[in-house]
TrEMBL record:
PANTHER family: TRANSCRIPTIONAL REGULATOR, GNTR FAMILY, UXU OPERON TRANSCRIPTIONAL REGULATOR. Pfam families: FCD (PF07729), GntR (PF00392). This is FadR/GntR family transcriptional regulator. It comes from Micromonospora cathayae. Keywords: DNA-binding, Transcription, Transcription regulation. The keyword Transcription regulation applies. InterPro entries: GntR_C, TF_FadR/GntR_C, Tscrpt_reg_HTH_GntR, WH-like_DNA-bd_sf, WH_DNA-bd_sf. Residues 8-76 form the HTH gntR-type domain. SMART domains: FCD, HTH_GNTR. The keyword Translocase does not apply. It comes from the Bacteria.
Amino acid sequence: MFGAGGVVPVTDEAIEKIKAMIVRGELAPGARLPREADLAERLGLSRNSLREAVRALSLIRVLDVRQGDGTYVTSLAPDLLLDAIRFVVDFHQGDAVLQFLEVRRVLEPAATELAATRMTDEEIAGLRRILAELGDSPSVEALVANDLRFHSHIAAGSGNQVLCSLIDGLAGPTTRARIWRGLTQEGALRRTREQHEAICAAIEARQPGLARAWATVHIAGVEEWLRNTLGEPESEPGS
């Protein structure tokens, strides 16, 4: 980020210098930062700019400021660093939700394909239990809550923490779309249950291609319905 005349703001400079220390391994996950005065001198920064940088990095979960103890580098785990996505996506409504559904259509089938090869038998049994928890006539809210758990369990079963965090982060706005669809589109609840069953069966059979295909059909159905509802042109398959 640059200010007027191309000069890097001092806070941004401070952030970059702390980031560089972490990237170079001078500050490892869980490490405590040097005293403010020492670190400011070492980096050639004012204490005020360093303080602002620490505050900014703590907001995005890179640093953890512990009152009376000091400032530490967090674990830097993907789910921690990508947590901000959940905050950002919750602001988006209407047409913007379509963009999140497009991203979901790219990510979730990939996660489902990985899950078909990586989930343990115990994890697949857990997926079956999630499906079995729904009664014969669930409410829309109950089905959507179950849907969220179902897809989150599959994402975790992909064995890719980054992918799992990204998918979980997209849950907010797409959840509202799923509920809206369940309340207004005839047969939506039945189709959701049937598609969940097909996805689970493909994972259980260790058929990654089929699992990916069913996940794509499942997610594309919500996207197509929302496009039609909002009067948007349909996207090309595979776009």
